[in-house]
Amino acid sequence: MTVPTRPVRRADRERRFDLRATALFFLLLAILLCLAGFVVRTAARTAGQRPAWAVALVLTGVAVAWLCRSGRRRRSAVRYARRATLALEEAAEQVASAPVPEVAAPGTEYVELEPDGFEHAVAALCARDGCPETEVVGGPQDLGADVLARTPDGRRMVVQCKRYGDGHKVGSQDMQRFGGTCFTVHEAEVAVLVTTSDFTAPALSYAQQCGIVCVNGEELDAWSDGTGPAPWTRAAG
Prior knowledge:
This protein is of the alpha/beta class. It has seven helices and five strands, in the order H-H-H-H-E-E-E-H-E-H-E-H. A five-stranded mixed β-sheet has the order 1-2-3-4-5, sandwiched between helices.
């Protein structure tokens, strides 16, 4: 008589397989923990007996970690540099294709300022070019002095600012009023009259006699752009 065999279910096989894998996992985990404990005990014993070696090993590990991190940063920096180069190339193409703006007339930007704004702009130019103690003093009772400064070589400078349009030149009366106070009242060693327009011939003649430096709109633009001299360099020392 043949005894029928009981077929083994697939679920039983899978259950036995899972148990076996779990057992292997815990066995490997135990081995790793033992190894880790051995390494820690060995490192502690070595550190107690030979601290120099322990310090060297720690420094080596730190250096390796830092080099790995630096390598990642360098790779990131290279990517960023490539992106920046592409952006600059696109910007250069846009600038090259853009229409060239027209050059503004001399003094145009300064004419658009308010009178006190023009005084502060002139003071900023003085400070930019190395004049210490630059101060805006313009006002109703300024007696012809809008900006006071000390030139880079130490001379006291008094500046009057005339924000005029192209059709309004600085005349001899304006120049005489400034000449009557810049030296006697303000004790200027360098007297400068700056305008956004130009000077009449009598005004230039009077300024030359008194030693006043005249800066018209074109010379102001050159001074501002750095293509022309600063006013105090044109004054006699």
